[in-house]
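Hi F.,

I've been meaning to write this up properly since the lab meeting, where we talked about keeping a consistent format for the predictions we share between groups. The idea is simple: the sequence comes first, exactly as it goes in, then the structure tokens exactly as they come out, then a line or two of notes. No screenshots and no reformatting. I'm using this chain as the first example so we have something concrete to point to.
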Amino acid sequence: MGEWLGVLLAVISSMLGGTAAAVTRYLVSDADPVTLGILRWAIGFLCVLPAALILRVRWPPRRDWLPVAALGFSFFGVFFVLYNIAIGYTTAARASLALSTLPLQTMLIGAVFGVEPLTARKSLGVGIAVLGVFAALASGLAAAPVGAWRGELIMLGAVLCMSAYNVWSRPFIQRSSALGFLAVGMGAGAAALLLVGMLTGRLAVVTGFGASQWIAGLYLGVCGGALAFILWVMALQRTTPTRVATTMTVNPIAAALLATQLVGEPFTLDLVLGLVAVFAGIWVATTEGRRA
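Output, unedited:
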């Protein structure tokens, strides 16, 4: 039950992340990548920190603060700036499909560092899911925005940051708590982005926001930031990094469905067929027998 609960929490988190991609696409013409990162993680941190204090969570031990902060900076800082840049070049759905290579990169990094064994069934499941991603991206290239490949390549590179975060997070979470670990890492990432925003004057962008932009920004911070990643680290606490990462392949569905409403992006047959393969891969990778 613990394994399946972890997978379920990760699926919900990935769906929230997909809607956040569509909201980011909606905001990307009004704000630069650093400002979008500040909105998402400063608001997210303001939600996570009070919850951690009220619940009196177990914080990371002092010796872990530096590596936890480094993981947070890499993920909530570097990864999401690259993520926001990528979405500026391509559609929310295609960017989310590129993000769905996360299971493959997580599996490989986990195997290289001996964190998680690489089984034949898990490899098959992740391979099916990732082939679905590449098939959908390749077949829909003609209908993609000009230069979309740049955004997808940036996203593929950015995924390395999230893969490392997935693989190396679990021991730190186990020595503290999911919420305590998240608060320290998210705080480090938000602080770094705020510093960059103040030094470059980019925070002034939000003064020109109207009501719709502020609603989108609040959704990005509360649901796409705090809630999505509370669920993500809770999932990492309960199951393996690769199984958690495999659920990222539901992200493009939520992104595409919301983006059709917010910015008029098409939901194409190529995407649907690719996602059928993605779901098949999730099922194969997450139904490994007890003996295996």
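Notes:
The longest helix spans residues 148-175.
The chain is about 80% helix and 0% strand.

If this format works for you, I'll send the rest the same way.

G.
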